[in-house]
What we know:
Blueprint: E1 6-8, H1 11-21, H2 27-34, H3 40-54, E2 56-58, H4 77-90, H5 94-105, H6 116-136, E3 145-155, E4 158-168, E5 189-191, H7 194-202, H8 208-226, H9 231-234, E6 241-247, E7 251-259, E8 262-263
Parallel strand pairs: 2-5, 3-6
Antiparallel strand pairs: 1-7, 3-4, 6-7, 7-8
Helix pairs in contact: 1-2, 4-5, 4-8, 5-8
Amino acid sequence: MAGFAFLSRKVLSSKIDYIYNNNLKSRHDYQAAARCRQFRKIAMKRLILFFYTLFGIVGIGHTQNRSLSLKNIEVDWETVDEVLKKHIKDKPTFNEGIKDFQTILNLDKNIELITNAESDELKSELNSFMKKVLDENKLPDNVKALSFGIFTSIVDKKESITIYLSGSGKTPKEDFNDWNVDPIYFPKYYLIPKYFESIKSQNYELNGDLEVLIYNGILNLLIINNIEFFKNEILTSNKDIYIGSGFDSGDTYLLGKLTETGIN
């Protein structure tokens, strides 16, 4: 797995193509915004206004009451990248992985990054989301890799960390850098986990590296430890399929290849 720890991604341009091909909006405006990396979030925020009007949302929840401030915590990218790659290689349990994050964040022993109740709810939300998406949008036989994308959506001026699923006809081995650029499978559902809503509402301006650690890191752990619950819906006609996860504006972490024996 060392050779496939993470990949650069350009899914935003694919979403532009998707909108253009479905006559939802002029392609030119979004392409211009997407040419520079710093404008990608701006383009995505504009795009999501159309997505939320036209497509379904799953799991948009109420903000949790528990207080958890991460505003003054600083982490460096090398540390974040290293621990996420370590989790991909070692496949720790969810709680073991969270302990690594607690250590990096240097949280007080009395402060939990995520409680058992919150983690159980996250697992339930992901399972429900995947069951709904895969039951209503069967995977085509030619999908070779699935990507769990993460981006910041905006609805009524409120920002939310949002997850979607897409599928590619190429594997990372066939196209290491751009395997998930042009999805051939793009279900019209999005997941906004309640726990992510709680973190976002209390920590509005987290730096990018910290966002990757919290949101991408926790999503990776969820997928690695929970994929057994929706494995059969994924492996309907394929004996194996690659699984990745990452922010649209950043890197995609390749979590491994899913087979009947699990993700490796």
